[in-house]
Specification:
about 350 residues; alpha/beta; 9-stranded parallel sheet; 12 helices; 9 strands; about 15% strand; globular
Length: about 350
């Protein structure tokens, strides 16, 4: 589950730290993606390229760009775009979190009145015009290979109260439809990506992904308001993870979106023994990673799977605030040393 520590201020970190570059490898494969809950250094992005992970999912907290004065500050995202595009890595932005100057509650989807909607439109339009197909970023940085953002993920996990309050099918459908029309208008090559829905939810915390999506399809216009589906199928076992991914695929098929791809924009297990998805140690974490990737590849065609994003790149340092199970889900420990799970992932990305 994406946490507050994945905001832009954290991701910037030591982005341009100097260090040795790993040996060149084949081009990164965008099917294999990653998220980070720690600062990503230049060496990290080099390692990501060497490991052939070809997509970087970046949560962009609205407030980190837009202070409410009408000006957008994209300097942090610019630096990350330079780092990824120059290495042949795609960027998948996740636009979410309502700023304090618009609402006291960051989870409140910005559709409650015309003013809130207009502010969201300005934010999204600015992103499209900067990083889309003919974006200003590419004109300002001719030294960077042109690698425009194609997929735009609208919000994060709106079916749970951690990221949306109230949890509302109607409000999210409205936000998605508004966003899709804007993407079509300002970057026809862009694709609207459904928010990653948290697969299984306690009743008091929200709504299961399949149920949330089924109700969404009953809203007029929803079926045509996104191009790519997304799921966060967190579970204790591989079998449960695959089953939870099918809960969204089957709903998409049933309601006329059979041909559209599905992304797993978050999944992961920890090497800890203290949290719900912790496997106990590095060996069992790496075994679980292997099991999950094998299963997803076996089911790739039926799921119409377009990509897998592991959560996360590195472990959080002890005592760092994060989600309830995020502490040791990384492929690297807090000192940057590769864990066994990293080497198991390489078995897939370098299987040419």
């Amino acid at each position: 589950m994406t946490s507050a520590v994945a905001s832009l201020a954290v991701v910037l970190g030591c982005l341009f730290a100097v260090g040795p570059t790993p040996a060149q490898a084949s081009d990164p494969d965008p099917f294999y993606g990653i998220m980070s809950q720690n600062p990503m250094s230049s060496n990290d992005f080099d390692t990501m390229k060497w490991g052939r992970l070809g997509s970087y999912r970046l949560p962009i907290a609205w407030q980190s760009v837009d202070s409410g004065d009408g000006e957008m500050d994209w300097s942090t995202v610019d630096q990350i775009m330079v780092a990824t595009a120059s290495r042949g890595i795609d960027l998948l932005p996740v636009l979410y979190r309502t700023p304090y100057w618009l609402s006291r509650d960051r989870r409140r989807l910005p559709v409650w009145n015309a003013y809130a909607i207009s502010k969201w439109k300005l934010f999204l339009k600015s992103a499209l015009l900067r990083y889309g197909t003919d974006g200003s970023f590419w004109e300002e940085h001719p030294e960077v290979p042109v690698r425009p953002v194609i997929g735009w993920q609208i919000w994060n996990e709106p079916n749970i109260r951690n990221f949306a309050w109230p949890v509302s099918v109607k409000r999210y459908a409205k936000l998605l439809k508004i966003s899709d029309r804007l993407i079509d208008q300002f970057d026809p090559d862009g694709r609207t990506v459904l928010s990653g829905l948290y697969a299984r939810v306690r009743k008091e915390s929200g709504m299961d992904a399949g149920r949330f999506l089924k109700r969404s399809y009953r809203i007029r216009g929803f079926r045509s308001s996104f191009d790519i589906g997304a799921i966060h199928p967190y579970a204790g076992t591989t079998r449960q993870t695959i089953r939870r991914s099918y809960s969204v695929r089957k709903v998409m098929n049933r309601y006329g979106n059979r041909g559209r791809k599905l992304l797993v924009t978050e999944m992961g297990w920890g090497s800890d023994s203290a949290t719900i998805f912790g496997k106990g140690d590095q060996v069992d974490q790496s075994t679980q990673l292997t099991s999950a990737y094998r299963a997803f590849l076996r089911n790739k065609a039926k799921l119409k799977l377009g990509g897998l994003y592991w959560f996360s790149w590195g472990d959080l340092a002890p005592g760092t605030p994060g989600c309830s199970f995020c502490l040791e889900t990384g492929l690297f420990d807090p000192q940057g040393k590769a864990k066994l799970a990293w080497y198991r992932l390489l078995d897939f990305t370098h299987d040419l």
